[in-house]
Amino acid sequence: MLVDTSVLTRTLQPHHSLYALTDRAIERLLAQGRELQIVPQNLVELWVVATRPLQQNGLGMTPADAAGELARIKRMFEFLPETPAVYPIWETLVIERQVSGKPAHDTRLVAAMQAHGLTSILTFDKSGFSRYADIEVIHPADV
Fold first, then answer.
1. How many whole angstroms separate alpha carbon 16 and alpha carbon 18?
2. What is the average pLDDT across 41-47?
3. What count of other Cβ atoms lies within 10 Å of the Cβ of residue 78?
4. If you average pLDDT over every residue of the chain, what do you get?
5. How far apart (Å, rounded) are the C-alpha atoms in residues 85 and 58?
6. Which class is 2-81+120-142 in CATH?
7. Is the pLDDT of residue 127 over 90?
8. Which candidate, 10, 104, 123, 125, has a CA 20 to 30 Å from the CA of 17?
């Protein structure tokens, strides 16, 4: 199961209202024997949010602090490598599904999932992945 960046971001915010829900969902899934994975796209997206200023809806972290968080995240979850298969899958998906703008980032996560044979994602953004009927979209509250 891929862990979406929306969930990863909450693991960096212990005072956020969704932190406990996130932590509980991850613990329950691991206790159920589910494998939780991340891909490079997750870490790129997380870096952008973590280092973006607070005034621009970011976390305002320094690059050094963000680097520490990336290392922690890579220890928490199985880190699947970037593969040459991701781009062609992504390109096919965005063209076939007429994806435009920011949703293309989610489509890249779906492409990585397909390249690695993953069929489910843990996310707070259920609607962002709803166009992919072959993907099981799980909200942390549903775990």
1. 5
2. 96
3. 12
4. 95
5. 31
6. alpha beta
7. no
8. 104
Which residue is it, tokens 């775990």?
A: 143
Over the chain, what HEC string results? CEECHHHHHHCCCCCCCCHHHHHHHHHHHHHCCCCCEECHHHHHHHHHHHHCCHHHCCCCCCHHHHHHHHHHHHHHCEECCCCCCHHHHHHHHHHHCCCCCCHHHHHHHHHHHHHHCCCEEECCCCHHHCCCCCCEEECHHHC
Residues in the chain: 143
Of 13, 84, 82, 85, nearest to 46 (Cα)? 13
Say how far apart CA 81 and CA 41 lie, in whole Å.
10
At 133, list the tokens: 């009927």
CA R_g for the chain: 15
